[in-house]
Amino acid sequence: MGEKKRKEATKATGQFIFRRKNYKFMLIGIGFIVLGFILMSGGGSDDPNVFNPEIYSWRRIRLAPTFILIGFAIEVYAILLNPNPKK
Fold this sequence. Notes:
By secondary structure, the protein is mostly helical. The protein has one domain (15-80). Helix content is 64%, strand content 0%. It has helices at 2-13, 20-40, 58-80. The longest helix is centred in the C-terminal third of the chain and has 23 residues, at 58-80. The chain is elongated.
C-alpha cells in the first residue's frame, strides 16, 4: 500500500526519486568500477604455450578488485543518500 502512495505522490509532483547529489556519487562510483576493470585488463600472452607471470601482479590481484569494491560501496551510498534531510 505504501508503494502505491509513493508512486502516486511522485507522479503528482513530477519529481525524480534521486537528486543531483545522488547522481554525482553514482558517477564517481561508476568511475571507480571502470578504473578497476581497466587496471585488471592485460597481462595475457600471445602464445598459449608460454606462461606470463605478469597475470598475477599486485595490480591485478589486489588493487583492481579493491577499486571495484570501493566503487560498489559508493554506489550503495549514492542510492541510500538522502540529499535533503528534513531538519
